[in-house]
Amino acid sequence: MSSKRSAPPTPGSSEKKRKVLSLAEKMDVLAVIDSGLGWSATGKKFGLHEATVRTIWKTREKIRQSVRESADVSSKVASVSRRDPLLEKMEKILNRWISEQVDQRKSNVDGVAIREKARSIYDHLAEKEPSGSCPAPGFIASHGWFHRFKQRFSLHNIARTGDDADEDDDTETRPVFTIMKLRNLLREADNLTELFTDQDPIQERSIKFKRVVDEGLIPYKETLRSKEASACQKPITAFFKPSPASTPAKKHSTPPCPRSHSHCVVQRSQLLALNVATCDLPTLLAAAGVQPSRHAVICLTCAFLRKIGQLQRL
């Protein structure tokens, strides 16, 4: 089976390679045509067929638009300047310095101290530059640079003081951990443990997981319990009734006692219900505007201490 061979080119036939014109060459062709030269003469000048010259002239708007777009891209690329090498070197040294300060548990590592250290490191590096090199443009440790520096090196736990604290407080808000949020989170944690218990085929593993989660939630449950108790506690003035003199007298009612205008009427059962074991009773009565007699204070104090278990009955 004979293999097919291509016929050798004849001396009279010469293969012509297709010439690809750049945008600059096409613009030169358009400029010659605009000057008044004809299609054929322009083709001979550039070594092109007349049909190619006509095609370039027909697509002149697209060619000029492509030239404008390429010029915009090149100008944008040229406008992007490289970062100051001294600045990059300074930031690396500064990052190592911050890591050393954190490892040594230094308490003065804040935004102000870091910015001052950055300026000193940059000035030191600029002084060590050879005189023949281009002069350093200078460095100002501004708030914007400090914010970008923290983002580049993932420094999110730096203490904020002074101007840095004022600026960061405007952009960063701490979440408010309310009683409602804590209650919802605990409910979700319980639902999560129940979900693992129902879905996990290994019962021992799910029980162990539930035990670990319950132990971790103990401080949160205690916090919720104390917060709910403090939120439900009534103020001390809620246990005192207003004086009869402060209420409008009704018709045909008996006149109030002359001595009742100087104090409130206290119900003993309500007073004993107060959970104020850390305060003495006379102070609480005085704070509420109550002025009972000395004998009444002694009796109520003894009854109060006896109720909370601090005074045994004789």
From TrEMBL:
GO terms for molecular function: DNA binding. Keywords: DNA-binding, Nucleus. Coiled coil: none annotated. Residues 78-159 form the HTH CENPB-type domain. Signal peptide: none annotated. Its main location: nucleus. The keyword Cell division does not apply. InterPro entries: CenT-Element_Derived (IPR050863), Homeodomain-like_sf (IPR009057), HTH_CenpB_DNA-bd_dom (IPR006600), HTH_Psq (IPR007889). This is Tigger transposable element-derived protein 1. The gene is TIGD1_15.
